[in-house]
TrEMBL record:
<feature type="domain" description="Helically-extended SH3">
    <location>
        <begin position="55"/>
        <end position="121"/>
    </location>
</feature>
<dbReference type="GO" id="GO:0050852">
    <property type="term" value="P:T cell receptor signaling pathway"/>
</dbReference>
<dbReference type="InterPro" id="IPR036028">
    <property type="entry name" value="SH3-like_dom_sf"/>
</dbReference>
<keyword id="KW-0597">Phosphoprotein</keyword>
<protein>
    <submittedName>
        <fullName>FYB2 protein</fullName>
    </submittedName>
</protein>
<dbReference type="GO" id="GO:0007229">
    <property type="term" value="P:integrin-mediated signaling pathway"/>
</dbReference>
<dbReference type="InterPro" id="IPR043443">
    <property type="entry name" value="FYB1/2-like"/>
</dbReference>
<dbReference type="Pfam" id="PF14603">
    <property type="entry name" value="hSH3"/>
</dbReference>
<dbReference type="GO" id="GO:0072659">
    <property type="term" value="P:protein localization to plasma membrane"/>
</dbReference>
<dbReference type="GO" id="GO:0005886">
    <property type="term" value="C:plasma membrane"/>
</dbReference>
<dbReference type="InterPro" id="IPR029294">
    <property type="entry name" value="hSH3"/>
</dbReference>
Length: 124
């Protein structure tokens, strides 16, 4: 018997059906989370386009939208009019255009546009 065991070829253990299904489930879950991410970014881009369209109609803005600088809101300010942008303290804003004397057109992180008084902004 000692000689027979010595020359016996060991076969590798094959995966069972259950192990294969478990591994496949984990791969499918990863793929699903990737697709969810893409879907949310797609929805976000559609929302940004919609906000830009509303902005162009409201402000009658036909120029190219370019970010002139970035600013931080110093204090929270609710909007008085529809064209004003409501602010929260510490919010990052993109300055699009300086149209009126003490106001600039800004865009927030959600893609909304509106007038903001320069005295509420901190340019660094």
């Amino acid at each position: 018997r000692g000689k027979d065991e010595k020359y016996k070829v060991r076969m590798p253990k094959l995966r069972t059906v259950r192990e294969y299904k478990d591994k496949r489930k984990s791969i499918d879950e990863v793929e699903r989370t990737i697709f969810k991410f893409k879907k949310s970014s797609e929805e976000k881009s559609k929302k940004m386009e919609k906000e830009e369209k509303i902005f162009r109609e409201t402000f009658q803005y036909d120029k190219e939208i370019r970010v002139l600088s970035r600013a931080t809101a110093e204090c929270s300010v609710p909007s008085q009019r529809r064209v004003d942008l409501p602010l929260t303290a510490g919010e990052q804003l993109d300055v699009i255009d300086a149209v009126q004397g003490h106001a600039v057109i800004c865009r927030n992180a959600q893609g909304r546009y509106g007038y903001v008084l320069v005295e509420h902004l901190n340019f660094r």
